[in-house]
Design goal:
This protein is an alpha/beta fold and about 300 residues long. It has helices at about 55-65, 95-105, 110-120, 140-150, 170-185, 265-275; strands at about 15-25, 30-40, 45-50, 70-75, 80, 155-160, 185-190, 205-210, 210-215, 230-235, 250, 255-260, 280-290. Strands 5-6-7-3-8-9 form a six-stranded mixed beta sheet, with helices on both faces. Strands 11-12-10-13 form a four-stranded antiparallel beta sheet, covered by helices on one side. A three-stranded antiparallel beta sheet has the order 2-1-4. The longest helix is centred in the middle third of the chain and has 16 residues, at about 170-185. The radius of gyration is 20 Å and the shape is globular.
Length: about 300
């Protein structure tokens, strides 16, 4: 029996694209060209861009679903992928499908079925466990899609508009699952149409324009720009959160706190709040210049 994989640490490996290009057909236009991208272990990386610019193509290349027309993909961590639209016309129930995938990942049946049930419960879909996939709504199908990706605690999680169709509670649960994966040493690469999705958390942000990938905020060995600070407003327990880094905490009311930290520690604070039990609700994240020394 393989040990329970969720949500423990993973032996992640990096994945990188080097001068990658992708086009469809020998003479088709280039969707992407000259793309360099690093997704190191433990990083949360966002990709932005207008519709039709090649975001999904990029994610499929990183996930290993498509192959580049030129250039190369370096590294191949154990990867899970969530598309925007889940192919629900499969001959399984929700629980049967997840159990089957758990078996593919090496779990014995009893453990696979237990893990599958726990993920369905976590995303509010336990009531549909015995429902055929083809009969599920878009939202319920998407919960199964997310659960199948998280089931085996992947080293690299690739999310292509994975929040689309989820209800509010399930979107919050996916936010927490992302935080758990990166806190455990896994990498997460995602696209989402909502600019506020995981605001303040990504270690790097890239934008696709034309067929090129440009850096908005790059990976530079720290989690935020030097010389800046982050203020997080969060609502939750009446007890002050236990944070693993230097910070300033102000209680705004019985349930709301404001935490100010150097930008280099902001990811640690956000992940601690999201992973708390019960989790804190992050109301706002603001980045601003740090005050001059001596103030």
């Amino acid at each position: 029996m393989r040990p329970d994989p969720s949500p423990g640490p993973v032996a992640s490996r990096n994945v990188a694209l080097r001068n990658v290009g992708r086009r469809y057909g020998l003479a088709g236009p280039w969707v992407l060209r000259g793309v360099d991208l690093d997704v190191p272990a433990g990083a949360l990386v966002r990709v932005q861009g207008a519709n039709g610019t090649g975001k999904s193509t990029l994610l499929r290349l990183v996930a290993g679903i498509d192959s580049p027309s030129e250039g190369r993909v370096v590294g191949r961590p154990r990867t899970a992928y969530v598309p925007e639209r889940f192919p629900a016309a499969l001959p399984f129930t929700a629980l049967g499908y997840l159990t089957h995938l758990g078996r593919v990942h090496g779990l014995v049946r009893a453990v696979a079925e237990r893990e599958a049930g726990e993920w369905l419960e976590r995303f509010g879909a336990a009531g549909y466990a015995r429902t055929p996939l083809a009969e599920l709504s878009k939202g319920s199908s998407q919960k199964v899609a997310v659960a199948q990706a998280l089931l085996a605690a992947p080293e690299l999680l690739v999310l292509d508009e994975a929040w689309t169709g989820l209800d509010t509670a399930a979107r919050g649960e996916l936010d927490r699952a992302v935080a758990e994966r990166t806190a455990a040493g896994g990498a997460v690469l995602f696209v989402d149409h909502d600019p506020a999705r995981l605001a303040g958390l990504p270690d790097a942000t890239y934008r696709i324009e034309g067929s090129s990938l440009s850096v908005v905020n790059g990976l530079d060995g720290v989690s935020g720009p030097v010389g800046r600070q982050v203020t997080v407003t969060a609502s939750g327990s009446g007890r002050d959160p236990e944070l693993p880094c230097p910070h300033t905490l102000t209680r705004l009311d019985a349930r709301t706190v404001r935490v100010t930290v150097p930008a280099t520690h902001s990811d640690s604070v956000l992940r601690t709040l999201l992973n708390a039990r019960p989790p804190w609700h992050v109301v706002a994240v603001r980045t601003e210049p740090a005050p001059p020394e001596g103030r």
